[in-house]
Amino acid sequence: MTDPRAGRRCHNPLNALHSALYFSPEFNAETEALGLASGPGTYFSAAGYFAARSAAMGAVGPGTVTATFFNFSHALITQHIPAAWAVAAPAQLLAARLRAVDKLLRRLLGEEALASREMAEAAELALRATDGCHRAGRPLCAAEADQPAAQEPHVVLWQAATVLREHRGDGHIALLTHAGLDGLEALVSHTSSGRGFTPSFARTTRGWSEEEWSAARKRLQDRGLLNPDGELTEAGTALRAGLERETDHLASAPYDHLGAAGVERLTELAGGFAAIALANGAYPNGIFARN
């Protein structure tokens, strides 16, 4: 058994490589070419994101997207799903997503890195880790794991990172539900920790009004998880820390399958690629509470 914290350390750079896609001009260009407009001046396309991230599950309805994405407003999702499927079929979106990944990683990492032995090794290790993922009860992970592997190592690395990211995320959602947190309460409590997105970016991109956000804060205050200033109380901090520990345990299977040495090497390789990507502007400025 590997240390569950080692799995989290490996997850962090892999997730950075995975998530950068949805903030990229390459992704917006590919989804806009299919007819899904991103909106003027935006670097986060809700229509493209909802459709492309859920496409592996097929042409699902808005309820399925709300359930699996968890912290997005159902009202926002219904603005785009199922309408997106009349514009582009899931197979078209999955192909567009991989084209965007290829272009994005070429821009962020450069041709030398993509052709390197280290990239091929990272892709092989990450793909091997996905063989240890549990599909049962993890709909997004299972859907992504069913996708055929690409040929290019950098795209394979992104695909494997996506499976691993959704494996962890599906387990995390189960724990949030068990803790009695709805999607908005989970989002508010997470941003109150000073981690992840800034509260304003999280609220607006997830489709919540200021009134809904304030109401969720009030519910968390009534449970003793937030203080009147909107900061986590001792109980709130303990709850969030416990959720992360339990998420590490639920996400440990692929890293146990890979083994300690493999996890350490994948963390090193993915960390190096993620550092280059971040240095080359993988994410817009100002969206994270801690950069």
Report on this structure:
The protein is built from 17 helices and no strands. The model has no long low-confidence stretch (mean pLDDT 96). The longest helix is centred in the middle third of the chain and has 26 residues, at 153-178. It has helices at residues 4-19, 25-33, 46-54, 62-69, 74-78, 83-87, 90-109, 111-114, 117-130, 139-145, 153-178, 183-192, 199-205, 210-222, 234-250, 253-258, 260-279. The protein is an all-alpha fold and 291 residues long. Helix 1 packs parallel to helix 17 (260-279) and helix 9 crosses helix 17. The two termini are 32 Å apart. 43% of the residues are buried.
Task: Record the SSE blueprint.
Layout: H1 4-19, H2 25-33, H3 46-54, H4 62-69, H5 74-78, H6 83-87, H7 90-109, H8 111-114, H9 117-130, H10 139-145, H11 153-178, H12 183-192, H13 199-205, H14 210-222, H15 234-250, H16 253-258, H17 260-279
Helix pairs in contact: 1-11, 1-17, 2-7, 3-7, 9-11, 9-17, 10-11, 11-15, 12-14
Key structural traits:
globular; 291 residues; 0% strand; single chain; mainly alpha
Output mean pLDDT: 96
Structural category is: mainly alpha
- The low-pLDDT segments are none
Kindly provide the radius of gyration, computed on alpha-carbon positions and rounded to a whole number of angstroms. 19 Å
Compute the number of helices: 17
Give the fraction of residues assigned to helices: 55-70%
Indicate the overall shape. globular
Q: Order of helices and strands, N to C? A: HHHHHHHHHHHHHHHHH
Q: What proportion of the residues form beta strands (DSSP E)?
A: under 5%
* Through-space gap between termini: 32 Å
Major sheet description: none
Q: How many beta-strand segments?
A: 0
